[in-house]
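Honest question from a wet-lab person: if I give you the sequences of every part of a complex, can you actually get the arrangement of the whole thing, not just the pieces? Trying it with mine:
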Amino acid sequence: MTSSGPPITFDPIAISDVPRRLGDLKASGGPLVVRSPASGEVIGQVTASTAADVVGVVRGLRQSQTTWESDGLEARIGHVLRLRDWLLANAHTLTKLVQDETGKPWQEASIEVPLSCDFINYYCRNAKSFLAGSHPRPHSLLTASKRLSIVHRPYPVVGVISAWNFPFVLPLMDCLPALLAGASVVVKPSEVTPLALGEVVRAWTQEIKAPPVFACAQGAGEVGAAVVDHVDYVQFTGSTRSGRAVAIRAAERLIPCSLELGGKDAAIVLADADLDRAVNGVMWGAFANAGQVCLSIERVYVEAPIYEAFVDKLAERVRSLRVGPDDQRYQADVGALATQAQMEIVRRQVDEAVAQGARAVTGGHPVGAGTFFEPTVLVDVDQSMACMREETFGPTLPVMKVRDVDEAVTLANDSPYGLSATVWTTSRKRAEEVAHRLEVGAVNVNDAFSNFLCFPLPHAGWKSSGIGSRMGGAQGILKYCRPQVMTTPRLSLRRELTWYPYSARVGRPLLAAMRLLASRGPRAPRP
Ligand code: NAD
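Yes, you can. This is the full assembly:
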């Protein structure tokens, strides 16, 4: 290892093993007890960080970052690939932790580790070309004597604040590109699901012996706020309400932030849709992860000619979904809601809708001992109901009949959110026309969530669903960098024409040359 930065004086364990060590720190916060939402049982505990802990963690990360950056990309890729190997070797244990802290079915929990590894491979394969500097050509004769360079230098410390719905893969999708870019990272998992990610951060230094540039701060919103107070860049995933608070604080500090927030994604089912695929796809898009996916389908607009057939088939298939706790034998399709508060939101929206005239053709109630709610299909809803306007983040699906595609598009756009939408049709041309009219960051045609699995695509919400974007090819890693430009004279003159002393002898021909060059610009098209 070569070292061009200041010596590393920070104890790596103090920043990489926060869940285990915070109890030893004098100023640490209280215990954070983690319960399984499926059973209510205590499954673990971490110690919450205090604001003072966060200050120390960020200071250490800042010191370690200079060497991390100067060691170069190849070295960073080596550490990240070793982490991938460790994740694969420990996939079962990590999946069990994810399942315990979320209450997901085994199949859904199992996806998080391999998806993270696929993501690592994508960025390790492409980071070199994504981060490569460039030498653009000077644009005019006046600057022709310069050599131009652009290099991408990381923000020293990136703060990643994350949600509980995919507690493993989502924060890693934010942390790993930042680490590869050469930044240090402090991640704050959701207070609801701190265990699996805490284990990965512990492994970074303790198992794979990587440098102390990846740390974990544990706790609730106030710890997230402390992270925002000290880092150089914030990558936030969570509700629009919290995201707004983060954006305000980031603006006060004049640091950039990228916000991945809530949604109320619409499905538009056109009369020419393949009915079976539409029903199966909309059902999965609505109930996977118990509806707790940022891209979950939360409302459906169906063209009148196929409305009855769509609802009948949907209700019949939804009734066959198995709800409840799962072991590792694939015994459930729909798992628990992550928190009791989430359960209350779902219950309130369903009860209010029914009181206002909606009908649950299937589901409508909590079920079982944990925070389980029956997969619910609501009909006779209208656009004014909370279940059609507010984010639900639960296993409910209100379905509304529309006259035609124009009404569907108008209603889909009638939302403060703009994360994504799905369009179900057998005509690619119609799908593209509808997509162009939708005010959302992503449109999946005849599928749900698929944009999220395509790492070259940016994941970006419009309107109140976010600012900036997560992942997405080159910009998914360049977002953690600041462009640094350099100009170098190609000729060694005693002075440039624009320098002192000013004189008519040099100034007039210079101005004339500039005017001549300016007049040779592109021509406006004739009206
Ligand atoms: P939340 O806003 O309550 O919490 C998210 C994270 O922010 C947590 O770690 C929390 O501790 C922290 N936090 C809360 N207040 C904060 C503050 N003032 N400053 C800094 N950090 C703060 O959200 P949640 O309930 O954990 O997650 C569910 C929400 O996340 C839903 O709205 C969902 O749509 C959204 N989400 C969006 C995406 C996306 O990519 N757009 C992905 C997953 C989840």
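Two things worth pointing out. The chain has two domains: 22-261+473-481, 265-463. Residues 157 and 491 are 39 Å apart (CA to CA).
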